[in-house]
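[Help] Beginner question about ligand-bound structures

Sorry if this is basic. My supervisor gave me a protein sequence and a SMILES string for zinc ion and asked me to "get the holo structure". I don't really know what that means in practice or what format the answer should be in. Inputs are pasted below exactly as I got them.
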Amino acid sequence: MCSSPAPFLMSTMFPILETSLVACSVLMSLPGGANCCREDLREPWVPRNRMPQGWRLRGSRGHGERLILIFSSRYSRLRQWNTLYLCGTDEYGTATETKAMEEGLTPQEICDKYHVIHADIYRWFNISFDIFGRTTTSQQTEITQDIFQRLWNRGFVLQDTVEQLRCERCARFLADRFVEGVCPFCGYEEARGDQCDKCGKLINAVELKKPQCKVCRSCPVVRSSRHLFLDLPKLEDRLEEWLGKTVPGSDWTPNARFIIRSWLRDGLKPRCITRDLKWGTPVPLEGFEDKVFYVWFDATFGYISITANYTDQWEKWWKNPEQVNLYQFMAKDNVPFHGLVFPCSALGAEDNYTLVSHLIATGTLEDWTRNIPRE
Ligand SMILES: [Zn+2]
Ligand SMILES: [Zn+2]
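Answer (accepted):
No worries, everyone starts somewhere. Holo just means with the ligand present. The predicted complex, written as structure tokens, is below.
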């Protein structure tokens, strides 16, 4: 009478420059010692010589998702369910470009270096992914460009002009974290391009007074630049319909449901999917040759391209929503990208993509300890 369950697809991914597993080990130990602080746990779980130089324990974000993922994948393998367990490093974006500059390497060299370090740590922990992949592959470019092209052809991509700060000396547009200046609200002198650390208000970088390029300290100029936007409002009905079919009765965690609900309640807005950078997936559109896709547009396609690097049968996993159960595990700040932006892109591409069936989001350590019953 017992029917065999649908195949399981499990995935998580994290930025190349972060040390997530170290934080994961923190949660591993908490049930036995709720009073331990992070520093107490560092030594027993991760010998110092295994910690990449200069990496830090991440405090606020939980990263318990790695742990849940390990248990879930081992459980489903023990049950002999057909399971694909994948993980990888997400390697594009400004953080990589900057780190490369600091270390005097090219972005590709810095990714090669850190990918090996990540993979080595997972081996040391005896975590047996089917594949531990990365996003800097030709499959990633091919799949991302294909999804984009389908969205473009179906009218789900808009063009608009954005005002941005550009450093003429560095010859590049400055991402928010590479500009500093005086807060237009409280006058704090070291406000960042996206937020003021003193008054906490969100800032649009072009509003900063006396802006400075953080790399060369010269004063950037305001330039307008043409960008592409994913038309989320146009995809909202499809998203709602899919959520209505998927979420009730699933293992979506309450915080994931709440985060997606609050985005929808506030109304979806078009989301910029391109950046004036060199390090990223090229945009296959005339007039956009000097831009790349925003890392959060294509990072989640990394799961697909990593699978494509593992097997040429990848479409049996990723274009098979009727038969595949997709579990995704993440910290709660990644919920909008996995539960909203990726599904909208995939639904708009109209290519029968497998979408997340169960979205498991972990909170911060603080959320977690708040829920520990106290005697
Ligand atoms: Zn301020
Ligand atoms: Zn500069």
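A couple of things worth pointing out: The mean pLDDT is 79. Residues 186 and 199 are 7 Å apart (CA to CA). Feel free to follow up in the thread.
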